[in-house]
Specification:
This protein is α/β, with parallel strands linked by helices. Helix content is 42%, strand content 14%. Helix 1 packs across helix 2, helix 2 packs parallel to helix 3 and helix 2 packs across helix 8.
C-alpha cells in the first residue's frame, strides 16, 4: 500500500477532524487529504494573529477555497501571554500550548473527534519545542509523522493535487525571526514582515530577515548572495530597512540556514 492510501485510510479512521491550517504546503496537503477522506466531516481552522502576514492569511483563504474544505478563521492574540513574548528557548512550546488549547475547545464544542497538524518526518531533525506541547493533547494527531512521510513526499502529493503551494518555500511564523531574549512586540514583528516584503521580490528561493534589535541580519540562498550585495540593490535594501527602524543591516555570508537563531542554544 502506498503512502497516500495509508494516509487516506488513517484519516478515515478518525471519523471527523479539524486541521490546524496555515496555508503552507504541509497543512494544505493535509487539508486536501482530509477533504478527500472525510468530505463534510473535515474542517480547516486558521488562527489569525500578529504572527502571520496578510499575504499568509490570503493564501490560507485561497487554498482552502481551492481544496473545497470548510474553513473557519479565528483571531488569536499570541502576544497576550508573557511566557511567549519573553522569547526564551521554549517560545514555541508556549505558543503551541495556547493555540492548541484554543483549537481543542473548538473541536470539543463542535463534536469533532481529532485535531490534525502537519508536522512531518523531516521535522524530527530540528529543535522544535512546539512538538513537545502536542504530546499534551490527547485529541491531536500528526498523520505525516505517524506514517513517516517526508517533506518531499508531501510536496509531490500537493503537486499531484494541483495545489499552488506545492513548491512554496517553507516559512515559520514571524516570531521565529526574532533573536532569543528579544521581547516579541507588534512593532518588531511588523519590522520583519515589512523588511521581508521589500527583499522578497529581489531574490529567489528561501529568504529571512533575522531581527537582532538594532541589527537586521538578512539570509538568502547561496546563489542569491551576489545578487543582494550588488551595489544598487545593497543601497536600496540598506535605505529601506533603516527607514523601518534598524540601525544596522547585514547579509549573512553563510546563506539561508533553517532555524539559524537556534545556533545560540547549541
Amino acid at each position: 500500500m502506498n503512502k497516500l492510501q495509508q494516509l487516506i485510510d488513517l484519516i478515515q479512521s478518525y471519523k471527523s477532524v479539524a486541521v490546524a491550517f496555515s496555508g503552507g504546503v504541509d497543512s494544505s496537503a493535509l487539508a486536501k487529504a482530509c477533504a478527500l477522506a472525510l468530505g463534510e466531516n473535515a474542517v480547516a481552522i486558521t488562527a489569525v494573529s500578529p504572527l502571520m502576514t496578510q499575504e499568509e492569511i490570503n493564501d490560507a483563504q485561497n487554498v482552502a477555497a481551492l481544496i473545497g474544505i470548510k474553513h473557519e478563521i479565528f483571531h488569536f492574540d499570541d502576544l497576550a501571554d508573557d511566557k511567549f513574548t519573553v522569547n526564551d528557548k521554549m517560545r514555541c512550546y508556549h505558543c503551541h500550548i495556547n493555540r492548541f488549547k484554543f483549537m481543542e475547545k473548538f473541536c470539543r464544542d463542535n463534536n469533532i473527534s481529532y485535531l490534525l497538524e502537519g508536522s512531518n518526518e523531516d521535522d524530527k531533525g530540528d529543535y522544535r519545542p512546539g512538538m513537545i506541547a502536542l504530546k499534551e493533547f490527547a485529541c491531536v494527531k500528526s498523520p505525516f509523522l505517524q506514517l513517516h512521510i517526508t517533506k518531499n513526499k508531501i510536496r509531490q502529493m500537493a503537486k499531484d493535487w494541483n495545489l499552488p503551494v506545492w513548491n512554496k518555500p517553507s516559512s515559520a511564523c514571524l516570531a521565529s525571526r526574532l533573536a532569543y531574549g528579544l521581547e516579541i512586540t507588534p512593532k518588531r514583528l511588523n519590522q520583519v514582515a515589512q523588511a521581508e516584503k521589500i527583499i522578497r521580490p529581489l531574490v529567489q528561493g528561501q529568504m529571512r530577515v533575522r531581527h537582532h534589535g538594532d541589527l537586521a541580519r538578512i539570509e538568502v540562498e547561496d546563489t542569491q548572495i551576489a545578487k543582494i550585495i550588488e551595489p544598487a540593490t545593497r543601497k536600496f535594501i540598506d535605505t529601506k530597512l533603516k527607514e523601518l527602524g534598524f540601525k544596522f543591516v547585514t547579509v549573512d555570508l553563510t546563506g539561508y540556514t533553517k532555524g539559524s537563531n537556534n545556533a545560540v542554544l547549541k
